[in-house]
From TrEMBL:
Annotated transmembrane regions: 45-66, 120-143
Full protein name: G protein-activated inward rectifier potassium channel 1
Swiss-Prot/TrEMBL GO biological process terms: potassium ion import across plasma membrane; regulation of monoatomic ion transmembrane transport
Keyword Methyltransferase applies: no
Reactions catalysed, as given in the entry: K(+)(in) = K(+)(out)
Gene3D superfamilies the UniProt entry points to: 1.10.287.70, G protein-activated inward rectifier potassium channel 1 (2.60.40.1400)
Family: Belongs to the inward rectifier-type potassium channel (TC 1.A.2.1) family. KCNJ3 subfamily.
Compartments, record wording: Membrane
Potassium channel inwardly rectifying transmembrane domain span: 8-148
Gene Ontology MF, one: G-protein activated inward rectifier potassium channel activity
GO cellular component terms given for this protein: monoatomic ion channel complex; plasma membrane
Length: 321
C-alpha cells in the first residue's frame, strides 16, 4: 500500500503548516521572546551576533561623535586639555572604550572625566541598554538550550500497534519505554483517533479527533515508566473500534496519535513525546515479545526485542460481531 500523508509523523512532528495569516502575523511580534525561542538555532545565532555587533558599533559611534563634537580628537597631544574620555582619539579607540565599559574589563587607560555631562548621560544609557539586551538575548538562549525536546528522543514507542486478546477482552496495545535511568515524574499517556467522518446532518469532518480510553477511570494512564510498558485500550461498546474486524481493518483509514507527557526529573520541565500509528501499522492477532528478565540482583531490559511481535490465536471478528 502506498504510504499516505500522516497528521503526526513517527518522530512526533506535526505535519501542519499555517498559511494566509494576513494581518494576524503581527501577533508574532507582540510575543517576540517566544518567537525567538521557536526559531531554528541558525537564526537564533545570527540574531544574537547581529544584535550585539550592531549595538556595539552604534554605541561606539556615539562615543566617537561626542569626542568629535567637543574637539577632543584634535587635542590629543595637549597635556593641559581635559577631554570627555581620556585617550580616545579615533573610532577604534572609542570602540575599545565602549567594550571595556560594557564588559567591565577596565584596563585603566581610557576613562570618563567629570567635565563631560553628555558622556555621563551616555554612560547611564549604555548601562541600561546593555542590561536589557543581555537579559533578553541570554535569557532566550538559555531557555532554548534548556528545552526538553531532546529528552523526548530517549522516549521510545513501538513501531507497530497490535490487536489481540488480554484477560478475555479484545485490546489494542502498543509499547512505550524510557532509555534513560532518570525518571519521568507524573508521566501520563493519552491517545487520539484521527479519522474522517460525516455527521448525521451531512457535515464532513476531515480530521475528526476522538479520545481513546487507555485507563482514565482506573488510573492506568498514569505511568511509572521505569521499564517498558504495554499500553492497552480495551475495545468495547464505547470504543471507536467496536465494529472493527480483521477484514475491515484492511479497508479502514485512520491514525492513532499517542501523546506521552511528564516532568523531567533532572530539570523539572515538562516534556512531551508523540508518535502515530496508521491502519497498516496495526497488526491483528499479534503480541509483543517480553523484554524483561531477572539477572543477578537486578532486572535486565533487552531493547533489541522492543519492537518484536509474534502471532497468537485471535478471533478475526469484531467485538460487535
Amino acid at each position: 500500500r502506498r504510504e499516505r500523508q500522516r497528521f503526526v509523523d513517527k518522530n512526533g512532528r506535526c505535519n501542519v503548516q499555517h498559511g494566509n495569516l494576513g494581518g494576524e502575523s503581527s501577533r508574532y511580534l507582540s510575543d517576540l521572546f517566544t518567537t525567538l525561542v521557536d526559531l531554528k538555532w541558525r537564526w537564533n545565532l545570527l540574531i544574537f551576533l547581529l544584535t550585539y555587533t550592531v549595538a556595539w558599533l552604534v554605541m561606539a559611534s556615539m562615543w566617537w561623535g561626542i569626542a568629535y563634537l567637543r574637539g577632543d580628537l584634535h587635542q590629543t597631544h595637549d597635556d593641559t586639555y581635559s577631554p570627555c574620555v581620556a585617550n580616545v582619539y579615533n573610532f577604534p579607540s572609542a570602540f575599545l572604550f565602549f567594550i571595556e565599559t560594557e564588559a567591565t574589563i577596565g584596563y585603566g587607560h581610557r576613562y570618563i572625566t567629570e567635565r563631560c555631562p553628555e558622556g555621563i548621560v551616555l554612560f547611564l544609557f549604555q548601562s541600561l541598554l546593555g542590561s536589557i539586551v543581555d537579559a533578553f538575548l541570554i535569557g532566550c538562549m538559555f531557555i532554548k538550550m534548556s528545552q526538553p525536546k531532546k529528552r523526548a528522543e530517549t522516549l521510545m514507542f513501538s513501531r507497530a500497534a497490535v490487536i489481540s486478546q488480554r484477560d478475555g477482552k479484545l485490546c489494542l496495545m502498543f509499547r512505550v519505554g524510557n532509555l534513560r535511568n532518570s525518571h519521568m515524574v507524573s508521566a501520563q499517556i493519552r491517545c487520539k483517533l484521527i479519522k474522517s467522518r460525516q455527521t448525521p446532518e451531512g457535515e464532513f469532518l476531515p480530521l475528526d479527533q476522538c479520545e481513546l480510553d487507555v485507563g482514565f477511570g482506573t488510573g492506568a494512564d498514569q505511568l511509572f515508566l521505569v521499564s517498558p510498558l504495554t499500553i492497552c485500550h480495551e475495545i468495547n461498546s464505547e470504543s471507536p473500534f467496536f465494529c472493527l474486524s480483521q477484514r475491515s481493518l484492511r479497508s479502514e483509514q485512520f491514525e492513532i496519535v499517542v501523546i506521552l507527557e511528564g516532568i523531567v526529573e533532572t530539570t523539572g520541565m515538562t516534556c512531551q513525546a508523540r508518535t502515530s500509528y496508521t491502519e497498516d501499522e496495526v497488526l491483528w492477532g499479534h503480541r509483543f515479545l517480553p523484554v524483561m528478565s531477572l539477572e543477578d540482583g537486578f532486572f535486565h531490559v533487552d531493547y533489541s526485542q522492543f519492537h518484536a511481535t509474534f502471532e497468537v490465536p485471535t478471533p478475526p471478528y469484531s467485538v460487535k460481531e
